[in-house]
Amino acid sequence: MLAIDPATKLSFNRLISNGDLVIVYERHDNLKAVTVSESTVLQNRFGVFKHSEWIGKPFGSKVFSNKGGFVYLLAPTPELWTLVLSHRTQILYIADISFVIMYLEVVPGCLVLESGTGSGSLTTSLARAVAPTGHVHTFDFHEQRAGSARDDFERTGLSSLISVRVRDIQGEGFPSEFAGLADAVFLDLPQPWLAIPSAAEMLKQDGTLCSFSPCVEQVQRSCETLQNSFTDIRTFEVLLRTYEVREGKMENLNGDNNGSNGSLPCKRRQRSNGSYAPDSIVSSVMARPCGEARGHTDYLTFARLK
């Protein structure tokens, strides 16, 4: 995903190479992650696409199949990776992720502690935010899940920015080696209040914490514990409503091709069944809410170390 220059520069290779991870965009609701291999082909309903023809093209290119169908080859940004990654657990989506990174004040050079890793959706965006000199240490109690996340970070080219460890943060707390060094801590745990005292020890003065909880009862108990060492405690619920913007055709019954509401009505041709035919069909760009709306996902509780 991101090529890290040892000389502390964050660079991104704009041309596709053999072995690169590419997000293949078939349509707005169908994306897939594909590793480019010169001897491999991609087959879908649009035809057969040769990987060898992708190499050397810039990300964002439109490529054609043997049948004339096409797909787009997109760079695997954290936003797109969130849409295609394997869901080993419930994941954070773009609205929550952007909110978390802003309120945790994560910037290049930060050291961030995260528990648990889960599917790695947030971890990927945290890594981009701390690059090129920062680091994300993420912990998960489930060994197989942590291993799968580690493989994903290798695949997306972020392994130099992320360290994955197996540890029960609720029971053991964070490793003492990070005491007083963390700029921010993120908790995605069933009982976050058990890890809050340890998180307080890890944070720098004025450091920030965020706890992700799906139930308000978890929020209430977490806030009670946070009051011991934290201030500026706030809880948010982020709801996102997306719109589809597309071109459609409308009947112009006024005979005014400019679509002016103030135009005078014109005569219309009467059909044989007695109804009236429109004067013309006009094209218009329309925006309407998507049919499937994502409801409540979680509560985000933020606090600052006293």
Automatic annotation (TrEMBL):
InterPro entries: SAM-dependent_MTases_sf, TRM61_C, tRNA_MeTrfase_Gcd14. SUPFAM superfamilies: S-adenosyl-L-methionine-dependent methyltransferases (SSF53335). One of its GO terms (biological process) is tRNA methylation. One of its GO terms (cellular component) is nucleus. Its main location: nucleus. Residues 252-264 have a biased composition (Low complexity). It is found in: Nucleus. Residues 69-304 form the tRNA (adenine(58)-N(1))-methyltransferase catalytic subunit TRM61 C-terminal domain. GO terms for molecular function: tRNA (adenine(58)-N1)-methyltransferase activity. It is an enzyme of class 2 (transferase). The keyword tRNA processing applies. It catalyses: adenosine(58) in tRNA + S-adenosyl-L-methionine = N(1)-methyladenosine(58) in tRNA + S-adenosyl-L-homocysteine + H(+). Keywords: Methyltransferase, Nucleus, S-adenosyl-L-methionine, Transferase, tRNA processing. Residues 250-278 are annotated as: Disordered. S-adenosyl-L-methionine binds at residues 119-122, 140, 168, 188. It holds the Pfam family GCD14. Its EC number is 2.1.1.220. PANTHER family: TRNA (ADENINE(58)-N(1))-METHYLTRANSFERASE, TRNA (ADENINE(58)-N(1))-METHYLTRANSFERASE CATALYTIC SUBUNIT TRMT61A. Belongs to the class I-like SAM-binding methyltransferase superfamily. TRM61 family. This is tRNA (adenine(58)-N(1))-methyltransferase. The gene is LOC107459929.
